[in-house]
Amino acid sequence: MTTIGVLTGGGDCPGLNAVIRAVVRSGLRQGYDILGIRDGWLGLITGNVEPLTDYSVTGILPKGGTILGTSRTNPFKTEADLQRLQDNVRKFGIDAIVAIGGEDTLSVAAKLSRMDMPVVGVPKTIDNDVAGTDYTFGFDTAVAIVTEAIDRLHTTAESHHRVMVVEVMGRHAGWIATMAGIAGGADEILIPEVPFDLEDVCRHLRARYERGKKFSIVVVAEGARPKGMETAIVQSTKTDEFGHVRLGGVGNFLRDQLEEKLDMETRVTVLGHVQRGGTPTAHDRVLATRFGVAVVDLIREKDFGKMVALQGNAIVSIPLEEAVERLKTVDMDLYRIASIFYGG
Ligand code: F6P
After folding, report:
1. Which of 78, 161, 195, 308 has the highest CB neighbour number within 10 Å of its CB?
2. Is the pLDDT of residue 342 over 90?
3. Does ligand 1 lie within 6 Å of residue 169's CB atom?
4. What single DSSP character describes residue 266?
């Protein structure tokens, strides 16, 4: 009998439950036992696992979040934690681990795989920055939420003749800002990949004003920073177990700068975790379901050390190592498309 342990790690995102449901349904159908591991890698360290049945996953397809819970636990932080994790894999007779996560969760999976543990990965993150896959699930939902917010901000910006700054998630990569900015017709999009020049931003917004457009929308990713600033603006310098500080504040920084330089009333909206909450779009439900089914197929083939990925319209598998060796940053051709509309 094969036992599959499944966990969700890192920041949650819409579609996680759809993957869990697909792993359980597909796994049970092939005669496997499925164990749900609670709160990411933490559950394997503490032995917090429970059998998942058809009943456990009933009705979860449209639900946001993760029924398994999540955490940013790094089992490589101490030798003792790593030992406990290995002991628990043996104790619960886990023959394959499905790690559903972003760069941190998958980098742990890759390291465990190097130690010959039977691990497979599923890429998730609203940031869409995992390499080797065209899209991660959760991203489409986040883009839809941000686009709706931009649409709503447009009408009030226009009524009040204001500049609206919208701060969105995107630690290392500005995919959400770029895609939602294009979809929402933003007048400026600022992303971590391209340090911005405040004078250029002001020039674009002034040009709009002079053309009679007395309002503007600026979308900024939390990891974006002006030229000359060494690091992104942080809310707290306290780091998580993977060494990440808590970003946030670039929206307020921009509001102050733009208000002063343009002499236009400026407001900021920080969308924060709203972007990660709630029900996944149909696109994310389908992608997550395809990933869940494909990862069980990998286990059946004993094709460990791999991550499922979307390339074009096909679900493929790539080595975990390849997925974690770099981050997938914004396609500059796409970013340039957005800039054609600045100042307009
Ligand atoms: O999941 C990635 C992400 O959404 C980043 O864009 C953001 O910086 C981070 O998570 C926020 O995470 P937390 O839930 O710890 O505040």
Report:
1. 308
2. no
3. yes
4. E
Closest-CA residue to 73 (of 95, 48, 51): 48
Of the pLDDT bands very low, low, confident and very high (cuts 50, 70, 90), residue 323 is very high
Nearest alpha carbon, ligand 1 atom 16: 246
The pLDDT value recorded for residue 75 is 98
Q: CA-to-CA distance for 227 and 235, rounded, in angstroms? A: 20
11 lines ligand 1 (CB under 6 A): yes
- pLDDT tens string 130-176: 999 999 999 999 999 999 999 999 999 999 999 999 999 999 999 99
CA-based torsion, 154, 338, 141, 220: positive or negative: negative
CA 316–ligand 1 middle distance (angstroms)? 27
Answer yes or no: is the C-beta of 9 below 6 A from any ligand 1 atom.
no
Domains and their CATH numbers in the chain = 3-137+280-324 (3.40.50.450), 142-276 (3.40.50.460)
Q: Which atom of ligand 1 is nearest to the CA of 176?
A: 6
Active site residue 95: no
> Which tokens sit at 47?
């032995």
Residue 11 CA to ligand 1 center (angstroms) comes to 6
> pTM for the complete prediction?
0.97
* Ligand 1 center from residue 222 Cα (angstroms): 10
Determine which one of 12, 127, 129, 187 is catalytic.
127
What pLDDT is stored for residue 344 in this prediction?
74
Half-sphere exposure of 100 (CA within 13 A, CB side): 41
What is the pLDDT confidence band of residue 279, given thresholds at 50, 70 and 90? very high
Neighbours of 95 (CB within 10 A): 17
Strand ranges, E, within 226-329: 234-236, 246-247, 266-270, 306-311, 314-319
Q: What is residue 274's predicted lDDT score, i.e. its pLDDT? A: 98
Q: Are 105 and 9 in contact (CB under 8 A)?
A: yes
Q: Which of 153, 193, 187, 174 minimizes the C-alpha distance to 341?
A: 187
Which residue, judged by its Cα, is nearest atom 12 of ligand 1?
11
Q: Does pLDDT of 343 surpass 80?
A: no
